[in-house]
């Protein structure tokens, strides 16, 4: 590789049965002419920050813990893609969007997300004003088996986000989009703030509609009790360093 400087974590291991360690790498650097340094661990609330700890927190739905470890809310970004367009047919009198529970769909390239379930979320990227606050929403992250063999998202991991609010300026910006009224192709970022529950199966469209409505009510209640969730996460400081 022609490496000249190698930076590793303080628990770095490599090679067969993880027998290689920092001392071995440092000796190899002295022999082959590259510098080696190690970065000390960080601790937040007595918990060592690591990708394993973050994945464990996300898997268990402990979103506040994951945000503390990351220094920011866990988020997913991507282009909005077409879905079944079923949401806009469900509860068409739903207050807010005016056309049911329409969703913003982000597709995954892998099959096993770190988190899954129903979440209270914040959506960035829809408002034309970059300084505007994010939009509150509720999202489903997981595999949604489809009964439609022509569903382009059938069996794939999908993040389906329904915004609880659609300000006039956002609706106007979408009205001027290539697909009027739609956000297809836009790049958005969805922050997963609080897990409401695991994915549920519904035996009818009526039950699904009622379930989504309850999720929206529960998300609104959570946002009401946590007025500024994005402001509660602080960056790591030197006081967190061991």
Question: Strand-residue fraction?
Answer: 15-25%
By secondary-structure content and strand pairing, the structural class works out as: alpha+beta
Distance, first to last CA: 32 Å
Give the C-alpha Rg.
22 Å
- SSE succession: EHEEEHHEEEEEHEH
Sequence stretches where pLDDT stays below 50 over 5 or more residues = 92-98, 145-149, 231-242
Mean pLDDT: 80
Count the DSSP helices. 5
How can the largest sheet be summarized? 6 strands, antiparallel
Folded structure, characterized:
This protein is of the alpha+beta class and 242 residues long. The chain is built from 5 helices and 10 strands; from the N terminus they run βαβββααβββββαβα. It has helices at residues 22-32, 51-59, 63-70, 168-175, 205-225, and strands at residues 5-9, 35-39, 43-44, 47-48, 74-79, 104-107, 117-124, 135-143, 157-163, 187-197. The strands form 3 sheets. It has a 6-stranded antiparallel β-sheet. The protein has a two-stranded parallel ribbon with strand order 1-2. Strands 3-4 form a two-stranded antiparallel ribbon. β1 (5-9), α1 and β2 form a beta-alpha-beta unit. α2 (51-59) runs antiparallel to α3. The longest helix is centred in the C-terminal third of the chain and has 21 residues, at 205-225. Mean pLDDT is 80; it is low at 92-98, 145-149 and 231-242.
Give the gist of this structure:
The protein has helices spanning about 20-30, 50-60, 65-70, 170-175, 205-225, and strands at about 5-10, 35-40, 45, 45-50, 75-80, 105, 115-125, 135-145, 155-165, 185-195. It has about 240 residues and is of the alpha+beta class. The strands form three sheets. Strands 5-10-7-8-9-6 form a six-stranded antiparallel β-sheet. Strands 1-2 form a two-stranded parallel ribbon. Strands 3-4 form a two-stranded antiparallel sheet.
